[in-house]
Amino acid sequence: MFETVAVIGGDLRQLTLARLLKREGYHVFLYGFDKDIRIDALEFDRDKDFALSADIVILPVPVTFDGTTINSPYAKNPMTVEEFLYGINPSALVFGGQIQPNLQKAFEENQLAYRDYLKREELSIKNAIPTAEGAIEIAISETPITIHGSKSLVLGYGKIGKILSKMLFGLGAQTYVEARKYADLAMIEGHGYEPLELCCLKNKIGDFDIIFNTIPALILDEEILSNVKKDALIIDLASKPGGVDFEAAKALGVRVIWALSLPGKVAPVSSGAIIKDTIMNIIKELGV
């Protein structure tokens, strides 16, 4: 049974995670929160060496942007990856989100046990809720019309697509949903939305006021974008490389917002709780 947990780097999601773990009785070390944020000095131990000695070490999402330092927007001096690898307790269990292949290799070379919590199905499902809410927030603030009565299209009927289409329908949007599987198209119709096959997208795309893409592959290419209404808004929720030809959209004057990492931006407290629950699920499965 582990007793000490270190949360190193990250944003308000990781701070929420640390507070939730402490509330449950764990001894939590916090490192990387000493700039542009106020935390009670008595709330956490914040010594770097203590943090690296913990039984469980939790890294942020993503673990690093530059491959050199731990992603730490609230740190005066972010911990380097080299410092982490050199000082980490060799028997620690390391958690991180979106652990890059080169970092995975470094963990393995140092014989560190690690898990990428961003790959967990339950986290993806729960994260779809703040993602959908954030997408709707953008649509409300960036368009001169109400969601109610708008013609809104959701591309893709995966985790985010399912929740987003339900929310749009609940707000009174004329909700169209694109899917490839016939079973999904039937389910879309069963929920009262309008199903749209991908083969019909080119001819139908000009009907919509707001277009939400959830597919992480190029769907909205130059040919399709040329048919989009000039006053329409496209909100791309797909991870890199996205689902829109951004250069073509700019040339055509089509407005696109690439809305990445919405859970941490629109609902960091809820997102931190989701990460915490996911990590605890993994720990239970491992019997640690």
Describe the structure in brief.
With 288 residues, this protein is α/β, with parallel strands linked by helices. The chain has helices spanning 12-23, 48-52, 81-87, 101-109, 121-142, 159-170, 182-190, 201-204, 222-225, 246-252, 262-266, 268-286, and strands at 4-8, 27-31, 56-58, 93-96, 113-116, 151-155, 174-179, 194-197, 210-213, 233-236, 255-258. The protein is built from 12 helices and 11 strands.
Written account of the structure:
A 6-stranded parallel beta sheet has the order 8-7-6-9-10-11, with helices on both faces. A 5-stranded parallel beta sheet has the order 2-1-3-4-5, sandwiched between helices. Helix 5 (121-142) runs antiparallel to helix 12 (268-286). The protein folds into 2 domains: 4-119, Rossmann fold, CATH 3.40.50.720; 124-264, NAD(P)-binding Rossmann-like Domain (Rossmann fold, 3-Layer(aba) Sandwich). The model has no long low-confidence stretch (mean pLDDT 95). The protein has helices spanning 12-23, 48-52, 81-87, 101-109, 121-142, 159-170, 182-190, 201-204, 222-225, 246-252, 262-266, 268-286, and strands spanning 4-8, 27-31, 56-58, 93-96, 113-116, 151-155, 174-179, 194-197, 210-213, 233-236, 255-258. Strand 1 (4-8), helix 1 (12-23) and strand 2 form a beta-alpha-beta unit. 40% of the residues lie in helices and 17% in strands. 42% of the residues are buried. The chain is α/β, with parallel strands linked by helices and 288 residues long. The chain starts with a strand and ends with a helix. It has 12 helices and 11 strands.
